[in-house]
């Protein structure tokens, strides 16, 4: 198994750019930047697409042009176009169940109430893809979640998230060279 596609979940547009819900997009943007690669808009794939090389391993990464709840459209279109299987996909997303500053890898599982994951599972017809869970913390009450994920993190939390993203980027060569278990040992501490 090797990762051939990394999907950064987000809501497109300047109004959402700095919101917690875009943490997955922040990761993919930072990863592409660290590789010196630039995105191109691919309308037929409903995404911004970049090809990146990580220590001799090439893969693609996308930022969906659809809103979060329709992330499965671009994920499916891209995976079908490049003949990428679900178990070769890594989806980077914000996670309410992890505090800001935590980042973890996981394989498979449910959507946990995350609408982007729910749509990807629906469009791929399975949940066999891998996830990079980026902690954003929880507001404490269920009815506060929507405004929380669509809000901007505090300066302190933003810094913790950025540091977690950096650790995720450092773990990518291990993931691509040595697989999920090795990368999990490095990242899931």
Structural class: alpha/beta
CATH architecture grouping? 3-Layer(aba) Sandwich
Looking across the biggest beta sheet, what order are the strands in? 2-3-4-1-5-7-6
Note the beta-strand portion. 15-25%
- Helix-strand pattern, N to C? EHEEEHEEHEHHH
Low-confidence stretches: none
Instruction: Provide the CATH top-level class.
Output: Alpha Beta
Annotated CATH topology: Rossmann fold
Average pLDDT across residues?
95
Query: How would you sum up the major sheet?
Result: 7 strands, mixed
How many structural domains are formed by the residues? 1
Name the CATH superfamily classification: Peptidyl-tRNA hydrolase
Tell me the radius of gyration.
15 Å
Give the CA-based shape: globular
